[in-house]
User: Fold Membrane protein from Streptomyces roseochromogenus subsp. oscitans DS 12.976.
Amino acid sequence: MLLKTFGWSFAVTALGLVAAVFYGGWEAFGVVAILAVLEISLSFDNAVVNAGILKKMNAFWQKIFLTVGVLIAVFGMRLVFPVVIVAVTAKLSPYDAVHLALTDKDRYQQLVTDAHPAIAAFGGMFLLMIFLDFIFEDRDIQWLRWIERPLAKLGKVDMLAVCIALIALLITSLTFATQAHQHGGAHADKAQTVLIAGVAGLITYMIVGGLSGYFEDRLEEEEEREHEEEEEAARTGKKKSAVLLAGQAAFFMFLYLEVLDASFSFDGVIGAFAITNDIVMMALGLGIGAMYVRSLTVYLVRQGTLDDYVFLEHGAHYAIGALAVILMVTIKYEINEVITGLVGVVLIAWSFWSSVRRNRVLAAAGEDSDEKAEVSSGV
Assistant:
C-alpha cells in the first residue's frame, strides 16, 4: 500500500537528489533536500484539504485531478512560477531568465539579489496573510491555546488581518526610507519597490482568496441542489439526473481544488527564495516536494481518515508565518539558509508530536471510561 502510493515520489526523490549531486555537489544535495522537506511540510495541510474534497468526487474526476491537476498545479506553479518571478522582477523574458541561470550564474545571482527586496516583500505579504487569516479564525481545536484563544477573539474585528499586514509592510518600507535619507536615491527606489511589491502580494492573496471563496460557494450551492433533488426523487419515485448533476458538482470541486493548489503553492515557491536563489536547485527541491503532495492526497483518501493528527495544519501555518517574518527581515538582514529551512521542519515536528500526545491522552481517557462503565455495571 505504502510503496504503491508513494512509489513515484520515492523515484522522483532519488533522481532529484542524484541530479543535485551532479549539479552542485553535496552542498546542492543538502539544499535540495531542505527545499523538499520545506515543500512537504508546507503542503501537508494542502494534501489534507485536497483529500477532504477529493473523496467526494467520482473515480473519473479523481483521476482528472491527479493527472491534469498535477501538471497544472505541481509542475506549472512550482517549477514555472519561480522563473516567472525572476523574469518579472529582473525585467527579462522567461527564456532569458532560464538561459542566464544556466549559463551565467554570477550575473543571474546578482539580478536575483537586486530583485530580492521585491520578491521578499511580495512573498512576505502573501504568506503573512495566509498565517493571519488562519490564526484569527475561531477554531474548535486549538494547538497553542494561550496564543490562539485571544487571537481568535481579536479576529472578530473586520479586516484586522489586512490592517496588520499593511502595518508590517509600512514598517518594512520605512526601514528603507530611513536608509534612503542617510544614503541617497538607490535605497529610496528600494523603499518604493518594497511598498509596491508588498501591496501586489496583498492584492494577489485577496484575488486568490476571493476565487477560492467563489468556487466554494458554488460547490455548496451544487450540494444543496443535489440534496433537494434526492429528496424530490424519494417523494415522487422518479430518478434524478445524477450524471449531469454529479458532473457539475465535480467540475466545481475540480476548479476549487486548482485554485487551492495555486494558493498553497505560492508559499512553497516564495519560501524557497528564502533558502536559495539557484533556479535549478529550487526546481529540483520543489519538484520532489510537490510529488509528495499528490501521494499524500491519495494516501489520505485511500486510508479514509484525516483526523489522526489534528495539530499538523496548525504547525504548517505557523511555519508559513515564520517564513513570512523571515522574508521581510531578509530585506535588510541576511539570515542563514539552514536556519530558515529548519524552522518549518521544527514546527511541523512539534505539531506532530503534540498530535500524538493528544491521541494518547484521549485513548487513555477512553480506556478509563470503559473500565468505570464495567465496574458500575458489575462486570
